[in-house]
Write a structure and sequence with these properties.
Chains A, B: This is MarR family transcriptional regulator. Chains A, B: Pfam families: MarR. Two copies of one chain form a homodimer. The first copy, chain A, has 171 residues and is mainly alpha-helical. Chain A has one domain: Winged helix-like DNA-binding domain superfamily/Winged helix DNA-binding domain (Arc Repressor Mutant, subunit A, Orthogonal Bundle), CATH 1.10.10. Chain A is built from seven helices and three strands, in the order H-H-H-E-H-H-E-E-H-H. A three-stranded antiparallel sheet of chain A has the order 1-3-2. Chain A starts with 10 loop residues before the first helix and ends in a 10-residue tail after the last helix. The N terminus and C terminus of chain A are likely disordered. The interface between A and B is large, with 88 and 88 residues. Chain A binds a DNA duplex (23 and 23 nucleotides) through helix 5.
DNA sequence: TATTGTTATACTCTATAACTATA
DNA sequence: TATAGTTATAGAGTATAACAATA
């Protein structure tokens, strides 16, 4: 989880510490905002027994039935070995299942189960609702602009670094 | 680190997977953007032998000489126990030091060392430069707007959830 | 030879709970 | 009793390298 500390010290006292040049840095603001947003989603999804990452995987599997693990890993920006315990867990919980492929016996195609679909159906409105909360104090125009600016930032990074190795920034 | 997978599968093939309702979600966009930004900073700071989190701590310590660990933990949004190994490491590397406090012998005041100041002095331009890259394709107005919108998002979350426990979202 | 999925392993980041030495 | 810092421990989350089965 992502809770925060003790109670002996007043938060105000801690906030009174000088943050120096940290304030206004894009990286810092993005991180703080990202963490705040993720906490709200995490908390709500937790009641359904899944994490944001598991939710994202369920979505992708549902939209791409029978995909191979390696492909799913790529799509999620993870190493193939990282996906193994993730799918183990979801399979144990009965939300996903591995099925052998007739043509290629190395492959384990991933399918969402009925139970997985139920959880997903319950989770989607929760995620949408969380997104509403996140966008709570933004107008529709501001929301579009925020998305647009973040997209620009990412494009800018890609261009400037034009990664020699093809490592995409999925998530 | 935050690298990404194998090479057997074309990135395009993976990108061709349907991401469903994930696209356009604030949480997802924030995460992807945050990760992209952090990777660029991480990579550059790595050459100086420090992580972004260590850099942030150095900044705060430098600006608040002799602060207690518990206070620093709060300021960084971490548990006091989390800060211990972090400071251990920085102390071992000779960038910070713990000094006893005359009045209260429980306290270990944290100070930046000369070496720490040197590393910090080298790191600050690196961080600023990374920030330039991040803001590369934004105009000054867009940059201000992005910061403003993220601030609004955080305020919105705080308001809507108006945390009963005082858990600030530092970082 | 190359690819798929798995294992074994390790490292980072974070927290909670219990402890110590003080206050 | 309460606080400052520490330890012991645990759990995510992630990766790399080596491996078996299969292509």
């Amino acid at each position: 989880m992502l809770t925060s500390g003790d109670s002996a010290i007043a938060d105000d006292e801690a906030r009174s510490l000088d943050q120096g040049m940290l304030l206004g840095l894009m990286g810092r603001e993005l991180r703080v905002t990202y963490l705040a947003v993720f906490r709200t989603i995490e908390e709500r999804l937790d009641r359904l027994g899944i994490t944001p990452q598991q939710f994202a995987l369920l979505v992708v599997v549902e939209r791409n039935p029978g995909a191979r693990q390696t492909l799913l890993a790529k799509a999620r920006g993870l190493d193939k070995s990282t996906l193994v315990p993730m799918i183990d867990r979801l399979e144990r919980d009965g939300l996903l299942e591995r099925r052998p492929l007739a043509n290629d016996r190395r492959v384990r195609a991933i399918w969402i189960t009925e139970r997985g679909n139920e959880v997903l159906a319950a989770a989607i409105p929760v995620v949408r609702e969380s997104d509403e909360i996140v966008r709570g104090s933004l107008t529709e125009a501001e929301r579009a602009q925020l998305l647009n600016l973040m997209e620009k930032v990412r494009t800018g990074i890609e261009d400037r670094l034009s990664s020699p190795r093809g490592s995409g920034a999925s998530a």
